[in-house]
TrEMBL record, chain A:
This is Amino acid ABC transporter substrate-binding protein. Pfam families: SBP_bac_3. Residues 36-266 form the Solute-binding protein family 3/N-terminal domain. It comes from Thalassospira profundimaris. Residues 1-24 form the signal peptide.
From TrEMBL, chain B:
The lineage of its organism: Bacteria, Pseudomonadati, Pseudomonadota, Alphaproteobacteria, Rhodospirillales. It is a multi-pass membrane protein. It is found in: Cell inner membrane; Cell membrane. It holds the Pfam family BPD_transp_1. This is Amino acid ABC transporter permease. Residues 94-386 form the ABC transmembrane type-1 domain. Keywords: Amino-acid transport, Cell membrane, Membrane, Transmembrane, Transmembrane helix, Transport. The keyword Hydrolase does not apply. GO terms for biological process: amino acid transport. Belongs to the binding-protein-dependent transport system permease family. HisMQ subfamily. The chain crosses the membrane at residues 27-46, 100-121, 142-160, 190-209, 221-240, 368-389.
Length: 339, 398
């Protein structure tokens, strides 16, 4: 009977809907099924994530995604990039539009605890600064009372800016534009006296977008701590672990002197730490749920942290290691033990 | 519902099959199923969302509205500092949206009407210029127009130090236009009260004048009388309040121009972009409205010896209004909704502030539901007002 068919169809759709709820571990399964990692990056921040002249994405943040793809899928090229603005990024991650967010994102308590994110470590220690035209005649941030400031919305930068001026009893007028390219265009058109973001971003903007970089100067004051790192959505702990340890493997490789050049020779090393990292003595890959060559592929295809930094940040922006030197060289980069 | 056919004598009791074969019963069953499926889909979406939020440890609820916003907003019609709450920040955004939408609606109506009438002009150049204006701006996406104006405005004016001063004390810079405003004084409050009083008096004078016109056929110069009453009362209030002359004049201090009222480039870009874009549609609405009135109406008015301006005002426009108001309402709604594109050029409208709020608190669903509710509310208010206006203007058909 027709009626029965309709009722049965109704009941079945209820059952189908009930069974369709997402389950834990979904992110890794999803990535394996589609065959690539969907990575949220900056719309254009040379040195961190920007498309080069051939349309290929490159940068320090991009390398984190490539490392994860190398570890999980065996190929660092199996990444698809979604360029996003600061304001879009967390929603995209929460909704599952991207698997990993590697977009110079500051690790803060609120984001970690309230936004449902898990940070995978710090791939760049940064701090917020100010970029001004030389013609403004300002040499310290304390002289900026009454200035008009260009800033991207939805960033810690926007909050630090308000905090800093409040603490110093100074006033400012924000100009808040969503897209970084529009924001910097407004700054270089003279809409603002000051452009503020993380110091690395200022260097990047000054170097690559200013009509004449020498007309602009970064003020000496650094007004905040900005530990930048990759983030994933909570709910798939195995995926979060894999992201964290892919980054750690890059730093550990640098600490141990393993580079993309010598990684094959290093497989013969007697050093037990190197043997564990490169999977010569097994166990690490199994613990992470990938094969034992995971870290070998990261170093071989992407390089260690120092190589990535040199090829991207130093080469494009001329920034030295500074805080991002290894802890053994007086910096803050410190790999958690891979064992 | 019609009664079901009963077997003669009512001997046979009805079985389930009889009910299921009854058309009316079936109709009810289908509707119950349809509603059920809609509810099911809704329940699925909501429960799935809540599930996902819980699994990812994302907090929900509107409690965040009472927290300190701690971000700055460049322009605000009410007191706002980074110390204010998120609720205040959203209110600032809402007021900015209303400001640009209201001014946009007023300006696009004026400009659109002018171009709409110009398209019907008997002068070839005027007609063609109006057509070019309409066809150009109607066919470029409004977002691109906003980018265009925002690229032009800061680029076209000099930096604050070399500000243009076309009128004394009015400064034009790449940071916007600064105009002097009077320093707050009691006299301005008196003037506001006087203005309201004048409007009430004008309303009654107009009623009296209409009555006299109907009774005796004598026209009364209501426009001049109104201007006189309004200006007179306001001037009296100004003088009675002590005739204050102190002005807040913009001048260069430090990096920026301080004082006066600043019309920001972001606001200008959004206002000009929306006004120009929507005015082209309004022009078409006005043109079609006028063309919809049969030419016999013009001829009839002519034969009564009415002046052309009088026949336009008294005969043609009231009839074209009837045709024009409903599509005009659509354009007003479009303009209000398009104002959400302001986020692209950095005007702190509701969407811009909500986006920032969403990002700082992670309350995406809450923030989006707030602004969806607000746009729905604004659109419904506009619709209600326009429907009321439409009913008032519509000709009563006999």
């Amino acid at each position: 009977m027709k009626m029965k068919t309709i009722l049965a169809a109704g009941a079945m759709s209820v059952a189908a809907i009930a069974a369709n709820n997402a389950h834990a571990g979904a992110v890794i399964d999803g990535i394996k099924a589609k065959g690539f990692v969907q990575c949220g990056v900056n719309t254009g921040l040379p040195g961190f994530s920007a498309a080069n002249s051939e349309g290929k994405w490159e940068g320090l943040d991009v390398d984190v995604c490539r490392a994860v793809a190398a570890a999980l899928l065996g190929d660092a090229e199996k990444v698809q990039y979604t360029p996003m603005t600061a304001a879009q990024r967390f929603t995209a991650l929460q909704s599952g539009e991207i698997d990993i967010l590697s977009r110079n994102t500051t690790w803060t308590l609120t984001r970690d605890a309230k936004l449902g994110l898990t940070f995978g470590g710090v791939n760049y220690y940064d701090g917020q600064g100010f970029l001004v035209p030389k013609a403004l005649g300002v040499s310290h941030a304390t002289e900026l009372d009454g200035a008009t400031v260009c800033v991207e919305p939805g960033t810690t930068t926007e909050l630090n800016l308000a905090d800093y001026f409040r603490a110093k009893g100074m006033s400012f007028e924000p100009v808040v534009i969503e897209n970084i390219n529009e924001t910097t265009a407004a700054f270089f058109a003279g809409r603002c006296d000051v452009y503020t973001t993380d110091a690395s971003g200022l260097a990047s903007v000054r170097q690559t977008m200013a009509p004449n970089p020498d007309d602009y100067v970064i003020l000496p004051e650094i007004i905040s701590k900005e530990p930048l790192g990759p983030a994933v959505a909570q709910g798939d702990d195995q995926w979060a672990d894999l992201v964290r340890w892919s980054l750690m493997a890059m730093i550990e490789a640098e600490e141990l002197g393993v580079t993309s050049e010598n990684v094959d020779d290093m497989k013969k090393s007697e050093n037990p730490s190197i043997q564990r990292l490169l999977g010569v003595s097994p166990g690490m890959g199994e613990a992470l749920g990938v094969d034992e060559e995971w870290a070998y592929r990261i170093v071989k295809q992407v390089g260690n942290y120092g190589e990535s930094y040199k090829a991207n940040v130093t080469a494009k922006l001329g920034l030295e290691r500074g805080l991002n030197a290894l802890w053994t060289d007086g910096g803050l980069q410190y790999a958690l033990p891979v064992r | 519902m019609s009664k079901t056919q009963q077997a003669p004598g009512g001997v046979r009791s009805k079985g389930l099959a009889d009910y299921l074969n009854d058309e009316n019963v079936r109709a009810v069953i289908y509707q119950i199923i349809a509603i059920g499926l809609v509810i099911l889909a809704g329940w699925y979406l909501v429960s799935n969302t809540l599930d996902n939020l819980e699994r990812q440890n994302i907090s929900t609820g509107f409690g965040f509205l009472d927290l300190e916003a701690s971000f700055g907003i460049s322009e605000s019609m009410i007191d706002y500092t980074p110390k204010s709450t998120y609720a205040t920040a959203l209110l600032v955004g809402l007021l900015n949206t209303v400001k640009v939408a209201f001014l946009g609606i007023v300006l696009c109506t004026i400009i659109g009407t002018i171009f709409g009438i110009a398209r019907l002009s008997s002068n070839w150049i005027v007609r063609k210029l109006a057509a070019i204006y309409v066809e150009t701006f109607r066919n470029i996406p409004v977002l691109l127009q906003l980018f265009f104006w925002y690229a032009i405005i800061p680029g076209a004016f000099p930096a604050a130090r070399n500000a243009l001063e076309p009128i004394p004390d009015v400064l034009m810079t790449n940071r916007g236009i600064y105009i002097p405003v009077p320093v707050a004084d009691n006299a301005y409050e008196f003037m506001g009260i006087a203005a309201i009083l004048a409007l009430i008096i004008i309303y009654f004078v107009k009623k009296w004048a209409d009555k006299r016109l109907d009774a005796t056929g004598q026209p009364f110069p209501i426009v001049w009388a109104s201007v006189g009453i309004f200006a007179g009362l306001v001037l009296v209030a100004y003088l009675a309040g002590g005739a204050p002359t102190a002005m807040d004049i913009p001048e260069l201090k430090g990096f920026n121009i301080r004082g006066g009222y600043n019309i920001s480039p972001e606001f200008l870009a959004v206002l000009i972009g929306l006004t120009v874009y929507t005015s082209t549609y309004v022009a078409e609405v006005v043109r079609s409205g006028i063309e919809a009135v049969p030419s016999g109406q013009w001829e009839a008015a002519d034969s009564l010896g009415l002046k052309r301006s009088v026949s336009l005002r008294k005969i043609i426009l009231p009839q074209s209004m009837r045709v024009a108001i409903p599509p005009l309402t659509n354009q007003y709604l479009n303009l209000t909704k398009n104002s959400s594109l302001a986020v692209a050029v950095g005007y702190p409208d509701l969407v811009s502030v909500s986006n920032t709020t969403m990002n700082q608190t992670g309350q995406a669903i809450e923030a989006i539901s707030i602004y969806m509710a607000v746009y729905l509310g604004l659109s419904l208010i506009t619709s209600l007002f326009m429907n009321w206006f439409n009913n008032k203007m519509a000709l009563v058909e006999r």
